[in-house]
Amino acid sequence: EDDQGMMKCIDCAYFFCSGWPVDREDPQGHARWHAGEHQHWVARWCDEPNLGYCFMCSRPMRLSDWSEDDYAVAARNEKDQQMPGDSVAKDGWGSVSGIAKDERQRVPRIAMDDVASGYANGDGHVIRGMPNHGETCYMNATLQCLLALGKLRTKIRSPDAHLGSIGLHLRELFVETRISNDARGMLDPSMILTAVRERYPDRFEAWKMEDSHEFLLSLFNIVDAEVEEENGRHVLEGGEVFPTFNVSLFWGSAV
């Protein structure tokens, strides 16, 4: 009975009440507020995990056919389709009427506390620190921005991704920042830094200031070169070509 009326967000794994009395056909409360505020549309009932509710479609649904990761990917893709600057209020989701102002400010903090450690963004990844390997703020800033991209997270963790060694190191950072993982401790991007320095021996030296954009270009040049190499091998084996990250995510504008 303690779980009655509680819902778990599929996208970020936070728990919220659905209002009282409990209405499985039209849940309210903090669950609805969270869906509209963060565009995390699907949540499951804690006392009946196979049952869920889509706040975008305004209908109950069974979750037995999809895993939580499947729904999380779908939710992130839906969010990424929204143009920058669009407001969720235009769809009627921006309203938080009926929730006191102090409660609206308190709910995100309660949700963060449930994660045990670290801070989580709206796409369900935990923000973890990175050590400075000698004036490497440019790399840390670049990687933190990449880790916040929902489309990149979905793409690089796809089982169809054709990744080389550096791509696999980058994917590991995404795995280590999943909200379901322990967020304690710092990330270690040293393998990525070493690989970039080996590829560009006259740049990104220790204790030397560098440009974040230049590091981004260099990193994706390496990752995409590995993708193209892996594509060649897969084509010879009758497999599909995996698009490079620069083209599929940035439309080639990152170079």
TrEMBL record:
PROSITE patterns the UniProt entry points to: USP_3
GO cellular component assignments: cytosol; nucleus
One MF term in the entry's GO annotations: cysteine-type deubiquitinase activity
Ranges for domain USP: 128-255
Protein name as it appears in the record: USP domain-containing protein
GO biological process: protein deubiquitination
Domain of life: Eukaryota
Lineage, highest ranks first: Eukaryota, Viridiplantae, Streptophyta, Embryophyta, Tracheophyta
InterPro entries: Papain-like_cys_pep_sf, Peptidase_C19, Peptidase_C19_UCH, USP, Znf_RING/FYVE/PHD
Range of residues in the leader sequence: none
